[in-house]
Structure formats: C-alpha cells, structure tokens
Amino acid sequence: VREAVGIMDISAFTKVEVSGPDAASLLDRLLPNRLPQKVGGIGLSHFLHESGRIELETTVVKLAEDRFYLVCAAFFETRLTDYLSQRLEGADVSIRVLSTDWAALALQGPKSRDVLAATTPAALDNASFRWLSAQEISIAGHSVWAMRLSYAGELGWEIHGPAEAMLVVYDALWAAGEAHGITDYGSFAMNAMRMEKMFKGAGELTNEVTLPAAAVMRFVRLDKDFVGKAATEASAQAQ
Hints:
Radius of gyration: 18 Å
Shape: globular
Strand order of the largest sheet: 8-9-10-7-1-11
Helix content: 10-25%
Oligomer: single chain
C-alpha cells in the first residue's frame, strides 16, 4: 500500500443513510462539524453525549440535497441508530441501515489511480475528482459511489455500493491491479498505517474523552450549536 496498491474489504463498516426533508437540519443540530455543502462532499465529524464525551466518529457523505450517508466502525451500528432515533424531536427523516445491503472496498496506494482508471470511464485527476469528494461512477457495468479518502494516508478511494455488485467490482480492480503489484491487506495493516499518519481511531476516540482531550478540535465549529457544545467549550478551557 505504501509503494504500490492494495485492496481491502471494508464491508463490515456500519453504513447508515439519513434522508428526508429534515435530514440536513437534524445532522447539523447534532454534529460539531459543518455538514458537506455540495452534493458529493465528504466531511468527518463526531456524535457527542451531552457531557461532551465522544459517542462515535463518522464520515458524512452528501449523496443528494436530502440524503446523507454515514459510515463508522462496525461495532457502533446500534449506538448510531439509537443516538439518531432518540434525538429526532419530530424531524421528518428516514433512517435506513445499509450495513448488509451495501458492501465496500478500500483501494489505496500511489498506484490506486492507475488501477481505478483502468476500470471506469470517470475522470480521476485532481481537478476532476478532488480530495474529500464522492462521485457515482461505473465499474464493470455496476453503478457505485467512489469516495476519495484514505484512512491509510496514501492516495486512494473507497468504493461503496450494492453488495451483489461488489465481488464483480473487486475482480475488475484486482485484474487491473495485477500489473501494478496489487495485494490484499487487512485491518491490522490498516491500523498500523493510520497510526503512522497520526489518524485517530475508535481506540482513542472513546466515550471516556472529549474532543479537546482527544486533540481533534479541528473538526469542531464553535460558531454553531450542537449536542455537547457547552461541555466541549468547558473541556477546551480546561486543557
């Protein structure tokens, strides 16, 4: 992954769609970071307890004006759905768990653009497909969402879409990657690489700490309201 390209099955991640007329206002009321403004935008944020302690970290992808896709660690699925359901306050939203219906792959490494380009007509250069953006593209005849982000810290994309399509997508990426030395890799390797890049993970972002204590205040906008804001500000002053 550091020198060529690797592919990882990340289907175990929790995948939840929040949609409806009030989807944006609900998430904006709950999350400390700003929501992605444009369709295809990606952001990283955290759901907090009222005490300011971290419930979970989530990637937020804006799939449409009224549709958001949330991805987090596998063991947070119930915590995420409970958190949202308990704080609806009458919001007109639909919460749909896609963890089983959708699968996902991570394609990472300096050769990942070459591999992905061989499987899709989509333009993948920096101008056409910027960092922290998502596009619906076609791979091996299947429509999937390609998300330019990388927990490994290298150039890369995550590919999310219907579970029944993902094996065909994997085979296409693998075939395209053989000339570049593609290899499978797993969560232990991913964990080592993200720690080398100083990316925080679920092991550090627990409900025993606040955002200031975890040193992730760059993902907080204090000019907006969110659950746990007062406690977050108090914790920041105490650090």
